[in-house]
Amino acid sequence: MASEVRTNKLSPASGVNLTLGDSGDTFTVPSGATLAVASGAAISNAGTASGFGGTNTPAFFAGRSGSNQTLTSSTYTKLQFNEEAIDTHSAYDNSTNYRFTVPSGQAGKYYVSVGATFGISPSSSLNAWLYIFKNGSNSGSQVQYLSATQVSATKNAILDLSVGDYIEAYAWVSGSGTLTFVHQTAVPGMGHFTAFKLVE
């Protein structure tokens, strides 16, 4: 039967170092308990610490590959990032809706970033705005660029997302000619749509 030691303080018999247990031992801090380190003190860990801190997941990273996506001038167009490099919770749809949906139990603050290169042919003046949409509405994030033939834009945001919320990347471009969202030969690359949950 397990025994229990009750004391208010453990101190080393000599020196300033106190060792808990031996190799292979496991020490458990129960749910609801708090492990606190006093000011000026330190914990040195040579073993494996589990259940502490957090991970920046769910996370996904997608790019555009295969071919350029044709865009319509002066129209909001969803960017089709169709190739995944990372998708920890299978929460990004890279074939139909091109959106990330927050999985069950994963509400929180997310870092979101989108980057894209836009081209126009034949060469002429090109304007491009890049947006991050939340639940079908502009989240207020945008970048505007002006160029003769091709521009690259990147936009970052931190969004507070609930379970079931979804985010998408949109562009609004204008110019006289054929407008495209330029693909890349390998993912990851400059063209990207990515997000990950922040540890709080």
Give your account of this protein's structure.
This protein has 200 residues and is an all-beta fold. The protein has a domain at 59-197: Jelly Rolls (Sandwich). The protein has no helices and 14 strands. The chain has strands spanning 59-63, 69-71, 76-78, 83-87, 92-93, 99-101, 108-121, 126-134, 137-138, 144-147, 150-161, 166-174, 178-181, 192-197. The protein is elongated and about 80 Å long. It starts with 58 loop residues before the first strand and ends with a strand. The model has no long low-confidence stretch (mean pLDDT 85).
What layout of secondary structure does this protein have?
Elements: E1 59-63, E2 69-71, E3 76-78, E4 83-87, E5 92-93, E6 99-101, E7 108-121, E8 126-134, E9 137-138, E10 144-147, E11 150-161, E12 166-174, E13 178-181, E14 192-197
Antiparallel strand pairs: 1-4, 1-14, 2-13, 3-12, 5-6, 6-12, 7-11, 7-13, 7-14, 8-9, 8-10, 8-12
Quote the CATH topology of the domain at 59-197: Jelly Rolls
Rounded average pLDDT: 85
Provide the β-strand percentage band. Answer: 35-45%
Contiguous uncertain segments of 5+ residues: none
Strand elements, count: 14
> What's the architecture of the domain at 59-197, going by CATH?
Sandwich
**Separation of termini?**
39 Å
Per DSSP, the total helix count is 0
SSE run:
EEEEEEEEEEEEEE
Protein structure class: mainly beta
Give the C-alpha Rg: 25 Å
Helicity, as a percent range: under 10%
What overall geometry do the principal axes of the alpha carbons give?
elongated
Please give the CATH class of the domain at 59-197.
Answer: Mainly Beta
Sheet having the most strands: 7 strands, antiparallel
